[in-house]
Design goal:
The chain is an alpha+beta fold. The protein contains five helices and eleven strands.
């Protein structure tokens, strides 16, 4: 399985590189320049004809501004812990999460398309008081988590209806609790996580349906890792590799949006979600992939929620 995932990731990187190299050989008009900086501020050349320009954006910072809107999100669902080296199964728990942040709606010349960029902080709980599973498993964990994240959504709209597909990632800090005496042979593995705040990261894929002007119904899949120790330099190297790969993919997706706008949201969701899940699978074996490191505690959360945008 790991060899297949490595092959798929290599193929994806090579494909994106070949497309980028091919596109650089073509002459592009200088006045049709649209560029995106790393803070997600979108700058458009003033000489562009607005009728021909596909992207029309407003500036955004992670703070309240005229162009951004605060939002409040509530999510609830089921969480499944796992560990590659564990000999026993983990009991399923309930999950509840609250997010506060700012969202920016992007304006495009294609009236049927919609795009959103979010920045948020979140707080979540995972324990048996929220959901009591009928299956009793030996490993029973509870935790609470603080997170800082970002997400991007692209979709379709009418005058009052938005349907969007989004992906995102986050850094988080988690405190785990469990009864060491009841866990058994896996207590040696899990002892690194007991009664301590541990750093980790997570990804998410989300479907959103706007019901009213400020309320959206959402279905979310969040999958993440909790590190037993934070190895700063290895984690930094892993993060840089991931971001470079992601930037190459975003260059490819920009061309998809330019040439086939209607297909853009779906293609973006499929490729971004696939790339995130590839990295997630790699990091199950090595938490700071591709560098040699231990296996982390992982979790998969399926939830539904409501987002209130003000």
């Amino acid at each position: 399985m790991r060899n297949i995932l490595n092959f798929l990731l290599s193929f994806l990187i090579l494909s994106v590189l070949s497309i980028n190299l091919y596109s650089q050989d073509k002459e592009e008009p200088k006045k049709d320049t649209v560029f995106i900086d790393q803070d997600f501020e979108i700058n458009v050349d003033e000489n562009i004809d607005k009728d021909e320009d596909f992207w029309e954006f407003e500036e955004f910072k992670f703070r309240f501004r005229k162009e951004s809107h605060p939002f409040l999100k509530f999510k609830g669902g089921l969480n499944q812990f796992a560990h590659k080296s564990a000999t026993e199964n983990f009991r399923q728990t309930g999950n509840f999460e609250v997010q506060l942040g700012y969202t920016r709606r992007l304006r495009k010349s294609r009236s049927y398309l919609a795009a959103f960029k979010d920045r948020y902080i979140g707080f979540s709980l995972n324990n048996n008081n929220l959901y009591k599973s009928s299956r009793i498993e030996p490993n029973e964990l509870s935790n609470y988590q603080f997170s800082v994240g970002r997400s991007e959504s692209y979709g379709y709209r009418t005058k009052s209806l938005f349907i969007s597909l989004g992906t995102g990632d986050e850094f988080n800090w988690t405190r785990n609790t469990f009864n060491k005496n009841s866990i058994g042979p896996d207590s040696l593995i899990l002892d690194f996580y007991k009664d301590a705040v541990r750093f980790g990261e997570a990804y998410n894929s989300e479907f959103s349906f706007q019901l009213f002007d400020f309320i959206s119904l959402q279905a979310n899949y969040k999958y993440g890792l909790i590190f037993p120790r934070h190895l700063f330099w290895k984690h930094l190297g892993s993060f840089v590799i991931e971001e470079v790969t992601r930037n190459l993919l975003e260059d490819y997706l920009e061309k998809v949006f330019s040439m086939r706008p209607a297909a853009g949201p779906v293609v973006n969701f499929i490729l971004q979600s696939s790339l995130n899940y590839l990295f997630y699978e790699f990091k199950k074996e090595r938490m700071n992939w591709p560098f040699k490191s231990v296996q982390p505690l992982t979790y998969d959360i399926y939830s539904i929620g409501l987002k209130f945008t003000f």
